[in-house]
Amino acid sequence: MKKNLLTLIAILMVCLGVNAQTQYVMKITKADGSTIELNADEVQDVTFVKTGTPIVYAPHHFDLTVTVGKQGGMGRDVTTIMQTRDKLDAGAMVDFKNVGAEINADYSMETILRGKYYYQVPVSADRFVKLQFKDNKMQVVQAQPFMENTYSTRQYCHAWINDNTLLIMAANGDKDAIVWTKLNTDNMTIISEGTLNISVAAGWETFTTSGILAYRENDGKLFYFYYNKKGSGRKATKEDCFHVAVINAQTMAVEQDNLCPFVAETAGSAYGELLQQTTFFDEQGNLYIAAFSDTAIGEEGKLLRIKKGEYNIDANYNGFPNSDGKLLTTQYLGNGKVFCYSRHDDETLGTAIDSYAHYYSVVDLNAGTRTRMSFNGAEIPYSSGRFSQRSTFDPSENKVYFGVNTETAQPQIYIYDVAKGTVSEGLKVAEGYYFEQIRLVED
Taking all residues of the chain, what is their mean pLDDT, rounded to a whole number? Predict the structure, then answer.
């Protein structure tokens, strides 16, 4: 009815405009309350074009994670508490004393989230579990014991092939092969599992622990980012350039094994994207991945790209301008905007997990610019904490919620309005806790 009425009004306006010149105007009131006025003689035709099914966002809430005593991540033995909040707006302070659940004894902060459920290999490292954090308690929905392939807590990468097919991948126990398992997340049954047809390169000893995995839906290809190394731990020697293995998602056959044209390592290669997001696709189908290179300033962040329809890193592109340190997390906001968390590599600030050397910025891929987050005209102070996703994007509000642990103030959540480009205060976290994660979860 509304469509027909608008069409009739438009036709009448055109007819009136022929006789009355600009005496009449068409006034269009948009859903947000703004208006557009057109003179009748400016209107030639009015048509309604279907632009696709509107996105309906499910009701959702936020799960917050904090640690006690020091920053968490990477298997640190530290008390880890989760709590659910409906809103993160200013005017409130969240305290975790007797509210929430300590999860570190049985489950890992390194986890996979989709919709309302978490998926992970728990501390027992003998099964896959599907979890729901409800009523401030972690509840097991379903579990699937390992069969052929086994995995360690925190040390694997993943990709979603479709809404209910989850692919888990990692180096095996000896780290001389890459194993994979496909799970049906409706019932957590194992669909299939096997070993990739790639071998450790000549002259090297093992694969990296987890690597990074991404799925390109338009051609059914998986991109597995990994490297070979010698030794273990921080003293290990790594290949200069990481590999880009192109895998058929249906057969799991490795069809290509390319070398990145940059001397670089992918961010988060030890634990996949279980703690933080390092890959995304833009509207054109280009795949981006956070990486870094060792330079005179330290670990210089890079945002690398594989173009739609191509199978290796674009040698002529780096989307992270004016890098002053390691790029840690990325979240795509649409329209070429990327929300980034990175570290300023400076000897006076330090480069440890607990160093106050980390900050947020927004990259504009189209303009080639990067702008640090500010509040009330001043840059938000450096934060401690590295190995976690301290921000979440709510597309229904077009807002980013991000948290900081600054040296001179209690933990604080800020809210970035993407459309307006403004930052406002959200809720504060009580003293004594270290802010770790914000996750947007369906109700």
Answer: 90
